[in-house]
């Protein structure tokens, strides 16, 4: 029987993506365009029906690209998690909205992990892409998968790779945005890196899944703090009768120590 590495190399691997939103759908199509058989899984039957009909609901995915991989037999969508029993890799791209107390709601991650556990089999790669707190992969996902008796890094592989999709950005898309990736074990990192390098030009491995999760937290915090700052600057400019856009563009001419954010 071919190994996971052999299946990735010769494009015979069956890839799956759970959660077909603005993160998961571009990923699924990217793998399909690279020649893999891809099955997308989503709990929304209307979304699945639309995708099967060749209608994209994601602004960064044109329906023509979707229809091409559908007609080529490389992409399909389903609400049935039973398909996970036959796939070689699973990328988890489910939402993690904030709760009323501003804590990340990881209930979708937990429910999907339980579904994966029921169908986990030797040689399978699981990659969590959903935004979450450091420790989720090895504290929440790993124990549930390890309860099957399979050993991580030997029987199955587990990693975290934070999504970096920027909706509406025409310059940086899936393939040319560097991808951070950290496995629970070095072997996990190796397997996940091998898969993602097939569709992404630059994969950046880090030492652990926790490190990869912390990278995402830093990126989001940086963005939130700077957007908050520029919103305050916009209010000040309004009171002073100044054009905030002119101020930002002028400051952006500084070649170091400044990055433009917009209100």
Low-confidence stretches: none
Number of distinct helices: 9
> Reading side by side through the largest sheet, how are the strands ordered?
3-2-1-4-5-6-7-8
| First-residue to last-residue Cα separation | 55 Å
What is the typical, i.e. mean, pLDDT? 96
Number of beta strands: 8
Structural class per helix/strand content?
alpha/beta
- Main beta-sheet annotation: 8 strands, mixed
- Overall 3D geometry? globular
Distinctive features:
263 residues, alpha/beta, 9 helices
Write a brief structural summary.
This protein is of the alpha/beta class. Helix content is 41%, strand content 14%.
Would you mind describing this structure in some detail?
- By secondary structure, the chain is of the alpha/beta class.
- Helices cover 41% and strands 14% of the residues.
- It is built from 9 helices and 8 strands.
- The chain has helices spanning 4-9, 24-33, 45-52, 63-71, 107-119, 136-146, 186-196, 209-240, 244-251; strands spanning 14-18, 37-41, 75-78, 89-92, 124-128, 156-160, 179-183, 203-205.
- Strands 3-2-1-4-5-6-7-8 form an 8-stranded mixed beta sheet, sandwiched between helices.
- Strand 7, helix 7 (186-196) and strand 8 form a beta-alpha-beta unit.
- Helix 5 packs parallel to helix 6 (136-146).
- 33% of the residues are buried.
